[in-house]
Structures are given as structure tokens and as C-alpha cells.
Amino acid sequence: MIFRGFLTIALALASALALAAPKPRDEAFLRAYDAFRAGDSMKLAREASGLEDHVLASYLEFWRLKLRIEDMSNSEARDFLARHAGSYLADRLRSDWLKALGRRAEWQTFDLELAPLVVDDLEVRCYTWASRLARGEETVFDQAKAMWLEPRELPEGCNALAEAFVREGRLRVNDVWQRARVLFEAGQLAAARRLLEYLPADEMPDAKLLSQAATAPEKFLAAAPALEKRPQREIALLALMRLARSEPRAAAEFLRTLADRLPEADRAFAWSRVGYEAARRHMPDAVQWFRRADKVEMSDEVLAWKARAALRAGDWQMVRDAIDAMSVTARQDPAWTYWYGRALAAQDNVEGARAYYLRISEQPHFYGLLATEDLGQPFVLPPVHLPTGEDLAKARAHGGLARAFALYSLGLRSEATREWVFSIRSMDDQQLLAAAELARRAEVYDRAINTADRTSRLHNFQVRFLAPFRDVFRQYAKAYDVEEAWVLGITRQESRFIVDAKSSAGARGLMQLMPATARWVARKIGMNYSPERVSDVGTNVTLGTRYLRLVLEDLGHPVLASAAYNAGPGRARRWRDAKPLEGAIYAETIPFNETRDYVKKVMANTVFYAALHGEGKPLSLRQRLGTIGARSAGDRFDENLP
Q1: Among 367, 387, 578, 603, which residue has the least CB neighbours within 10 Å?
Q2: What pLDDT digit, counting tens, does each position of 377-412 carry?
Q3: Rounded to the nearest 5 degrees, what angle is found at the Cα of 470, between the Cα atoms of 466 and 474?
Q4: Is the pTM of this model over 0.90?
Q5: Is the pLDDT of residue 8 over 60?
Q6: Checking phi first, is residue 536 left (phi over 0); if not, alpha (psi -120 to 50) or beta?
Q7: Comparing C-alpha atoms, which of 570, 575, 568 is closest to residue 591?
Q8: CA–CA distance, 43 with 67 (Å, rounded to integer)
Q9: What is the chain's percent helix, strand, coil content, to nearest 5?
């Protein structure tokens, strides 16, 4: 177990007296937690009795208040906040209290208590706007527009704000349809239907036609729908969006037949959606369909796929045009900083490209490595900065870290992680490295890695790229002839070296093996395997490394194999192009957000692990990415790979 001997370490970290609780006290605490989750305030009070001096006593108090948040007095809230000022639980209670105050429209108290809130919350923001609206402020709607365009069901406080806008006549037909499109694009059909109830009776779409457009879009479009009125046109656009999600080419054909009957803005919007869905399927026609959208306003997500379609097509001007149209925040993302530099370089603007590369060069991530290499510079590991004894002593005395360690020792990982993340949010580099070192010593490897990963000037890559159980990884990497740095890079991304990690999909252990994959590999190598052994370090690394080897043999490239490890070999193959493709472009154009981020990080991790542990001159990231071979009708692969 990852927490073997953990309580002893936690005792030293927080104070021997506070954490030296006998086991029955910890069991009582866990029973109190179960009572809180069940909403049983009586049982919670019984189990909490006698735990007033427990290092986690503030949680017991928070749970009692949380269960009665609607009738908690203002004096009780303020007393808790004063005694636990600056803590994670104080901020959490303040957020919940503000929502309760907002529901009751107690704006004077709400306004007084809002300022100290640390963690941003959309519902609290909506109540803030509602408070200002109650004071007659005229600028609220413009500022609340970002909330209005959230691509999801809005929380209670935001719905209340929307209803206030309706009552005061501040929500117009255009605003409703604008949000409806956002919800349709996100597949939030139930939320969109509820939203349309805000429309005046004469603007309401036909419910039957709306349902048909959502569930049978091709049938709806084939019936040549009427488009004279806006509700009819909006339903047709919904049908086109829905059809494009599964059949972009069919949607494009219907759009061509309807184009002359649609206003120019609606026509351009529809082409942008067809182009978006086609780009996510790597269809070459995506580029021309985006061109038909002309200069219609697009979201950052759609513009990102316009840029990716252009990357695959080698249309560097379109890459630049798409990035130029993004929001300032999106343009500053290292990915688009790098690709804008590449577009300039492809157009022989060497100095312009260099300026963009310099913005992100030497940053320790995928695009920082590529930019550094494109500048002709080798990546050099930064000097190791070790925390001092004084730094470590201060970290041990930090109440939030002590509570996080205690929660980890009790197996309450979600609560512990939230406490930890809140506690380190404003730490400087020295404090972060001290906290990371304590987590490393306590074998809470994910916190050690993630905390060391946050430093900006002072670094310790030996903690940022930890390699626990290295003897095991070295043994099986050698046995199955795969690069140890790559196996470590995969494992860092899969589990952060948490031995008993379990994903929501059921993947288990260090290398996050699905049960079917583990059984298949075990049979392949003749291992005497049982499911309960999958979290054993040796078993997990044996099966995971052997599977990596099999996938690499099948696909022939570590980038493809990395994608396959996350999303399956079949998808990794389909994401190739009809022509050879630069490895970096393949990675950037992976359709799944999770897998795209995963592959980039695995390949960058591999570079860093090779630099830390490799022998001889390590390969650059560009060398590792190489070129991805073209799809071929004659491709042969192991159909039995899970």
C-alpha cells in the first residue's frame, strides 16, 4: 500500500500530540464522515463526541454546519470563519453560506461577506450580479454574458438571475437563441428545451419539429423544412448541427440545398459547425467548409479545430487566421504560440517565428521543448534546488498540509487533495519544493509531483519527475525491450505512481490496466494471474510494460503506441493521415482532448526522464516524434489487441 507507515510520517509532520490518536478515534472520525455523507446529523454528533482535539476536528464542525446551512445563523458562520481564517474549510463554508444568503436574497449580508472568498464559483458570481441588479446597476447584463454562454446547465443562482432578467425585460429573443445554440452545440438538449420557454409565445418553436430535428435530423432535413421564420431556421440549424456530429458530409449536402434560403450569418454559422465536426474526423473537406464560413464569429474551440484542420492540410495562412481570431487567453496558450511561430517560419518570416519561439522556449512542457529545439538550442535540465531545514520545518507546521496528510492517512483522498491544493495555492517556489519534499518522504507521490510541477524559477526535476519503484521499471523495461524513460513517462501520466490508483472506468494500479487488458496480457505471457493482484507493483508493471511492447510492435511508433495506450490501438491507427504526417501535428490533431493532452505529456515526460536517468546522448523531442506513416489499405495489425 502507498500509505504503508504513513501515519508515523504524518505524526512528525503535524505534531506528535495532535496526530497520535489511537485507532478507535480515527475509526470514530470515519464513522462521522459516513454520517455526514448520509445526512445523519444525530449520528454525526454522537461519533464526533470526544474528538474535539483531533487534528481534523475542524472537519467535524464544518460537517455539522454544512448539514444545517439553510438555518445556520450568521453569528455561527462568522465564528467558524474567524477561528479557521485562511483555511480550505473556511473558504468552503463561506461559499456555501453565500449561496444560502443569495437564495434568501439577503443582499446586505451577502455583500459584506463576499470579498474574502478565494475559490471562484459560478453560482456565487451569479448571486453577486443578482445583488447588483437589486441595487439597480444597469451594467450587470453585459458583465453576466459570460455566464449566459456557459455550455452547460446553469446552477440555481444563475437560473434565478436569468429569471430576473426576463421579468425586467432585459433578456431578448436574440439572447435566448444565442444561448440555445451554445447548448445545442454542447449536446445539452434538455437544458436548451427548458431555456426556450423564456421566449414569447409567438417566437416559440414547434415542439414536435424541435424533437424531430434533435432525434432524426436527416429525416427532418429531407422533408425540406420551411425557413421563413426565425424559429423554423433555428430548428433547421439544430438539425444540421446534430447531423454533422455523425455525418458531416451529409450535413454539408443538405446545407448546400438550404443555403440560398438562409440569411448569410446563419449560413456561415452552419458551415463553421460542419467544418468543426469534419475537422475532428480529419476529413480533408474541413478546410474548404471552414472557408465557406468566411468571417463568422467562432468560439475558441471551433477556431482551434480550424487551425488543426489547416495544420493537416499544410495551409499555414489559415493556421494564422484561426489563431488571430481566438480570444487573447486562447492565443497565449503555448500550443498556439508555437504553431503561430511555425506558420511564420513556413512563410519565411524567420525573425517573427523566432520571437514566438522565445516566448515559450525552455519552459518544461511539450511546446517549450519544441520551441527550444527550433531555436537550435539543446534543452538543459535546471539546477536542482533543495529546500532548507527551515523550509521543511515551516512546511511541517503548516496546518493545511498537516490536515491533508492526516486525511491521506485515513484514505480520504478526495478531501485530502482539495485541502492540499488550497494550501499550496499561493506558495512561492521554496515553499512548494518543501511541501513537495514532505509529500515525497510520505510516499504521497502524486502530490509531490504536482507540487514540484508548479514552480516557476527554482526547480527540482528529481521530484517533478519522480521514479519510485525504479528497480522494477528498469527490470521489466529491459526484459521487454522498451525504453525505461518511456515507461516512466507513461506511468507518471497514468497514475502519478499511486500504487492502488483506480479510475472511474475501472483501470487499476501504477500503469492503469483495464481488467480485460490485464487478463489478455497475462494469458499472452503465461502468467498465473488473478484480478486482485493487478495493483501489486511487480504484476502491474510486468503486464503494463509487456502491453506497451505489443502495441509498439503492432503500430511501429512510440507516438502511436502512446495514443493507443490511452485510447486504444484502433483509434490510434485511424488518426493517421493519407500522407506521412509530422509527429507533432499528429499529436496536436488527436480528436479526444484527454488523449491529445496525454500523448503530448507522455512524450515530454520521456525526454525529461531520459535526461535524468538515460545513458549517452538522449534523443530530442522532435527526433522522438519523427514522422507518422500514412494510412494504407494494406496495413496489417493484431486485431486481438484490446
Answers
A1: 578
A2: 988 999 999 999 999 999 999 999 999 999 999 999
A3: 130
A4: yes
A5: no
A6: beta
A7: 575
A8: 12
A9: 65, 0, 30
